[in-house]
Amino acid sequence: MTVVDLEKDVPQNAPRPAPQDAPATGPATAAADAELPDVPRRIGGFTRSGVLSLLGAAASGLCVTVLLFGELAPFSGALGFFITAYLSFLGIYAVLTGLEEDAQAVRDRVMTVVLWTAGGLMFCALAMVVGFTAWRGREALPHGNFFTQDMQAAGPLDPLTHGGIAHAMLGTLIMITIALTITVPLGLACAVYLNQIPGRFSRFVRTIVEAMTALPSIVAGLMVYAVWILGLGMQKSGLAAGFAISVMMLPIVIRAADVVLRLVPGNLTEASEALGAPRWRTVWHVVLPTARSGLATAVILGTARGIGETSPVLLTAGFTAALNADPTSGPMVSLPLAVFNFVKSPEPTMIARGFGSAAVLMALVLILFAIARVIGGRGPGHQSKRQARRAARASRRDTDRFSQLHTPGLDLFEPTATENPGETNAPLGGAGLHQSAAPPRSATSHDAPAPENGEPAPGPAPTDGEQPLSSTGDEH
Predict the structure, then answer these.
(1) For the chain, N or C: smaller number of CB within 10 Å?
(2) How far is CA 220 from the centre of its chain?
(3) pLDDT of 375-428, one tens digit each?
């Protein structure tokens, strides 16, 4: 016999005795439990135990490394010291964290420290490059002639008060403008094709684009030099350099834009096509505006790749110390090529000009990046204050326009002349719907089953004051 059988005869509403070991509960305890607030679990941030574990692990790892390199093992070298200290720190930190957390939390804390370390190293490397370049070029940057003059009347032995990089700055802007004019339409159109028209040929094009991403810059310069200068007989110019730079930028822009367009939600395009919009209108009004910020980033990646190229410019644009604003004739120089020629000189003034040119190149890239971010705007779902105010004004205008429209009345749905004058139309409940006066129902329905053995067919039930209809199968 089971417990269910023993309790079968016990009423459902009968009070059950409380266990002897259970604590006594009353109204006060229930009220106290109900008043306890829900405390959310803290996922990130710093805690006291976490900070103490981090500092203790760092100090312990440093001490272990000093002991190993100084007393126990014949280790030496600064790089080995730092690597050993870091690995010891990670091991001790994992042990200290495991005293309070589970294995999943230990892995999470250790990976967080590793990622923060990698980010810190990248930031330090970037700060070192930018700071070193600006520090070495500090002698040339304060002079105004450095930005307004060229090197046509200045030599290696002239002081920094003579000559400048105006010709290189103008050449870089002209070349990158030509490259962007070619790359942006072609790159975005190719990315849209790869994203919207899948097929065998699109897979072939994607393979070619991925292969061109690793194309050496000297190969692009040689191709333009062989086709444009040797084959067609054109001279070295900024236009040829722009062609070579666009060859380097195009695969970067296509690949980055393709990845961005894949992130556009499919329900947006499906909704647009469900409303009857053609494919080109869906792409122009839905896909491209949604991915605008990502497309701006793709263009910036290609620009950063092309603006720093030196060998294609050297092969296709030549070198000149004079200012040339015509990209179709005459040699032209860019900032990377000017840096290369300045730094290889043994004179300190020329080296200072080279580092100053590199600092100007980094500032130019930063300015172009800021312009692209302004043009690209924010990502989907993130509006600026101006965009939010514009959307609010548009909503108010729509609300006012809808409120001015009168509600459709019954006069809009009045019946017109009917074909049969005997029929009458009457509105139903003011809802704008009408019902024609139905003709009297025949005695026998065509959907009724046929009578059998001469029995009368069933007819409608007689109402008060009416005589039942007698019909037979012969009448039908």
Answers:
(1) N
(2) 30
(3) 766 655 666 777 788 888 888 888 888 887 755 544 444 455 444 444 444 444
Q: What are phi and psi of 427, to 5 degrees?
A: -70, 145
**pLDDT bracket for residue 264 (50, 70, 90):** confident
Secondary structure in 3-state letters for 2-54: CHHHHCCCCCCCCCCCCCCCCCCCCHHHHHHHHHCCCCCCCCCCCCHHHHHHH
* Residue where the block lists tokens 């409120």: 403
How much is the pTM?
A: 0.65
Output the six-digit token pair for 203: 């897979």
What is the overall mean pLDDT for the chain? Answer: 78
How far is residue 292's CA from residue 285's CA, in Å, rounded to a whole number? 11
The tens digit of pLDDT for each residue in 233-255 reads: 888 889 999 999 999 999 999 99
174, pLDDT greater than 90: yes
Look-up of token digits 């009168």: 406
CA–CA dist 304, 295 (Å, integer): 14
Q: Kindly report the number of other CB atoms within 10 A of residue 298's CB atom.
A: 26
User: CA–CA separation, 290 vs 285, rounded Å?
Assistant: 9
User: Which residue in 247, 222, 241, 223 sits closest to 333, CA to CA?
Assistant: 241
Angstrom CA distances, 353 to 135, 138, 173, 314, stand at: 12, 9, 19, 19
Of 309, 195, 194, 203, which is closest to residue 246 (Cα–Cα)? Answer: 309
DSSP code of 434? E
Determine the Cα–Cα distance for residues 275 and 268; give it in Å rounded to an integer. 11
Distances (CA, A) of 464 to 27, 34, 260: 67, 66, 77
Supply 321's token pair.
Answer: 């110390």
Helices 348-376 and 335-343 cross at an angle (nearest 10°) of 160
Amino acid at 133: T
Q: How far is CA 237 from CA 28, 38, 171, 248, in A?
A: 90, 71, 10, 17
| The amino acid at 110 | V
Distance of CA 83 to the CA centre of its chain: 36
- Please give the pLDDT value at position 435: 42
Backbone dihedral region for residue 253 (phi beyond 0: left; psi -120 to 50: alpha; all else: beta) = alpha
Exposed, middle or buried, 229 (CB in 10 Å: 0-12/13-18/19+)?
Answer: middle
- Strand 434-436 relative to strand 425-427, pairing: antiparallel
Q: What is the 8-class DSSP label of residue 205?
A: H
Instruction: Tell me which residue has tokens 């896909």.
Output: 287
Residue 425 pairs with which residues in a beta bridge? 436
| Closest by CA position to 358, among listed 372, 338, 375, 373 | 338
Closest alpha carbon to 57 in 87, 81, 78, 77? 87
**Distance separating alpha carbons of residues 180 and 409, to the nearest angstrom:** 59
Quick one: pLDDT at residue 36?
A: 58
- CA–CA gap between residue 436 and residue 124 (Å, rounded): 84
